[in-house]
Specification:
The protein has 9 helices and 6 strands; from the N terminus they run αβαβαβαβααβαβαα. It is an alpha/beta fold. The chain has a single domain, classed as HUPs (Rossmann fold, 3-Layer(aba) Sandwich). The chain has a 6-stranded parallel β-sheet, sandwiched between helices. Helix 4 runs parallel beside helix 6. It is globular and about 45 Å long. The N and C termini lie far apart (52 Å). It binds adenosine-5'-triphosphate (ATP). Adenosine-5'-triphosphate binds next to helix 2, strand 4, helix 5 and helix 8.
Length: 218
């Protein structure tokens, strides 16, 4: 069986595990700032996986970004609200911001699950995040709580074989989302803003207005 066949059958297994349950997408991230990459990919995941909603969950203080200056959660929440406005399938959740740290994804998923009983959870993430999964707290708990809906990211390989060797069963809990490669990252946007370059069209206008009004990323 080829790599792609393997992918397809893993995808079928994961998708058909509980077909009768409504599906909720959970999109965790720093969103510093939210950009069109996040929105495009969430929309494609929503459509291809038939998600009832996508919950954007801005991380309060990501454990793996402790030492970097992260914009205060209230600003990131406000930017996300502006980014998703008008999309009835998207919602922003304060679930991570409003709780005591440390803010592990595994705990966040447990909370989302407790608040959304009867839903099958799909945790949306890019290939770079998938490759870091084993550095996160309780990866086995994460894949027990949610199916991982993964999309590709430029220059980041997806090696499910290697991951399976370290986290048995993960292959059956991953679905790959077929989406265009998008070469935008929040890091590059912050750098552009610091250099005084425009990020117009890379973030929704309402997000850009907020950034300018609040004088963020200077
Ligand atoms: P930063 O550059 O600050 O690390 P980011 O642009 O990667 O930020 P995050 O908020 O960290 O954005 O991302 C949330 C999730 O979205 C992660 O799983 C990340 O892999 C994914 N993601 C963000 N941008 C892209 C992109 N352009 N292509 C694919 N996945 C992306």
């Amino acid at each position: 069986m080829s790599y792609l066949d393997n992918q397809a059958s893993a995808q079928d297994d994961a998708i058909s595990s509980e077909p009768e349950l409504p599906r909720l997408g959970v999109f965790g991230g720093t969103f510093d700032p939210p950009h069109i990459g996040h929105l495009i990919l969430a929309q494609i995941a929503c459509d291809t996986l038939n998600l009832e909603r996508v919950l954007f969950v801005p991380a309060a203080q990501p454990p793996h970004k402790q030492d970097q200056g992260v914009t205060p959660p209230l600003h990131r929440f406000a930017m996300l609200q502006r980014a998703i406005q008008g999309n009835p399938y998207f919602e922003v959740s304060r679930i991570d911001m409003d709780r005591q740290g440390p803010h592990y994804t595994s705990d966040m998923l447990s909370l989302v699950r407790a608040q959304n009983r009867g839903y099958e959870l799909f945790f949306l993430l890019g290939a770079d995040s998938l490759s870091e999964l084993m550095t996160w707290r309780a990866p086995e708990w994460i894949i027990a709580q949610a199916i991982l809906a993964v999309w590709r990211r430029p220059n980041v390989p997806i090696n499910l074989e290697a991951l399976e060797a370290r986290l048995p069963g993960v292959r059956e809990r991953v679905v790959l989302i077929d989406a265009p490669l998008i070469e935008i990252s929040a890091t590059s946007l912050r750098e552009s803003l610091r250099r005084g370059h425009s990020i117009r069209y890379q973030v929704p206008d309402a997000v850009l207005e907020y950034i300018q009004r609040q004088r963020l990323y200077r």
